[in-house]
Amino acid sequence: MEVDVASCEWSVGSVGDDPIHSSNLPMEVDVATGEIPGRPARTDASMSDDVVRRPPKPRRRWIWVGVGLASAMLLLTSTARFVSMHAAAGGSTLPEDLESLPYVEHLPLALLHLVGGLVFTALGPLQLSTRVRARWPRWHRWSGRVFVACALAIGVSGVVMNEVFPNAVGGMLRYTGAHLFGVAMIVALVLGTVAILRKRVTQHRAWMVRAYAIGLGVGTQRLIIIPLFLWFGGVDDLTVGLGMWGGWLVTLLGAELVIRGSRRPKPVAVPALG
User: Which of 216, 249, 242 is nearest to 228 (CA)?
Assistant: First the structure.
């Protein structure tokens, strides 16, 4: 079989009444330009009109910056708490170390909360990363089990500590907030686990993002309260309580923006016919 390369002549099945697609008319394509003689040349502008282009992805860099800052603050303050607990156990009378005495008196509970929080903080960004999930799905599943266990540990221990630690700074605002968001975190973890067991991946991810945001909110609180403490030389119960609520609410707002952004339909570039 010989084919005329210069004209690239062939016939195609009839498609409606379009003369270009008629089986009775051969199509000749200019191999130099890729155009069909007798048909208007297509410009880049006209081609762009026939294509539904994927919109640019929303920039989420600021969200990851916030996650990094809150995570770093959690790691630093948790490490400082460990050092203060060790000093308080050794008989230190410094005010900052005396604040850690309740942790020493309830050492197993405090260690469960602090160690679980450190693992939770370290694993959280990796669990949220779509690149990590896609490249290492098995690692994502197994580390996810550890993440959920640590998150449940800090949620339950946080609620208990809120009851047994006397005279905690923050007053009633702190007390009600710690209970409300602690229980909300546990509920989100349970719903997220149930969702993945039922193969509902989108719901699973949404609930896990919310649970992570509540835990990370503690770091956001410290980003709010510590600068105020340094600026004014101290803070009262009202400021601490409002700072704690603000940290949780701001982080949850960011979580909802991430969830809504991930649920938006993503148009795919489709060339127009004709």
Answer: 242
